[in-house]
Amino acid sequence: MSSADIAVRVYRELEPEDFRVLSAIELEMSRHRYVPMSDLVKVCRLPEKEVKYRLSRLDEFGLIYRWVGFYVGYSLNMAGYDCLAINALVKAGVLEAFGKPLGVGKESDVYDALTPSGERVAVKMHRLGRTSFRQTRRLRDYVGNRRHVSWLYQSRLAAEKEFEALKIIYPCGVAVPKPVSQNRHVVVMGIIEGEELSRVVDLPEPERVLDEILLNVRKAYSDAGVIHADLSEFNVIIKPDFHILIIDWPQYVRLDHPNADYYLRRDLKNILQFFKRKFRVRRDLEDVFRYVKGR
Ligand SMILES: Nc1ncnc2c1ncn2[C@@H]1O[C@H](COP(=O)(O)OP(=O)(O)O)[C@@H](O)[C@H]1O
Ligand SMILES: [Mg+2]
Q1: Is 288 within the bounds of a domain?
Q2: What would the pLDDT profile of 203-218 be if each residue is shown by its tens digit?
Q3: What distances in angstroms separate CA 206 from CA 209, 236, 243, 255, 285, one per listed residue?
Q4: Domain range for 37
Q5: Are residues 205 and 281 in the same domain?
Q6: Where residue 143 sits, what CATH number does that domain have?
Q7: Has residue 229 been placed in a domain?
Q8: Is 230 among the catalytic positions?
Q9: Which pTM was predicted?
Q10: pLDDT digits (tens, 9 = 90+) for 108-144
């Protein structure tokens, strides 16, 4: 069971006092790796006995981690952080109910959900900071060279960046999911149906699909001033009508980024290589690069 599965199952059972203790741990985690009980009592302004009771409940639900060292301390785990974000989105009238998981990635869990007005949305919970080379690289782009950066902060930053990107790009008519809302490490967006390009076995008219991808990269570049910077066959969705969507934008860069051309060229290279390998469609990288830049 993923953290998201745990969160989606238990958040309804949580009482206001549970959330108060969870929020207090979140707040104090900016100062401690493991938050001492005494701090929680102060921040929550609940009797110690009550805090202890809430901590044991949260522990049982699998939402916090209890560390025993030279003192006893607590930290949120991902499911606990998920619950805080879900609760905030429910309270804000953004979400009403959860459905099934749509995708479990290395850097996210994506869930199907409903808004109070009955609209279906996708809920993407960012997961960063579990160590991998790719994440470390992504991370350096986000935060420069700060040494200790918690998974909490990294995941929130990724969600903020992705939501920001969608808000810039979507109104320009680029084929991306519609941004709906964001809280902490969670982005709510329009739900899309389709399959990752990497998994599509039979693609009629690959030339046309490639043109459509390039047109959208160009639109994002010239109308929104945005470069995806992690574009590949894994972040292109082929809809049932064989039109495309480009997803997964947290690492986007602006045109004035010092390495903008490098990222754009890399994005295009990934896509062109995929189409060459899989569909024998050939394009010249430099031609395409000039096309996207509007020259
Ligand atoms: N808006 C959405 N609607 C439906 N499914 C989605 C949506 N966004 C992502 N997904 C699913 O979740 C998977 C991972 O999403 P992605 O944004 O690429 O995150 P990651 O950073 O984990 O790669 C996608 O391949 C897709 O299957
Ligand atoms: Mg992806």
Answers
A1: yes
A2: 999 999 999 999 999 9
A3: 5, 13, 11, 29, 17
A4: 3-80
A5: yes
A6: 3.30.200.20
A7: yes
A8: yes
A9: 0.92
A10: 999 999 999 999 999 999 999 865 445 445 544 444 4
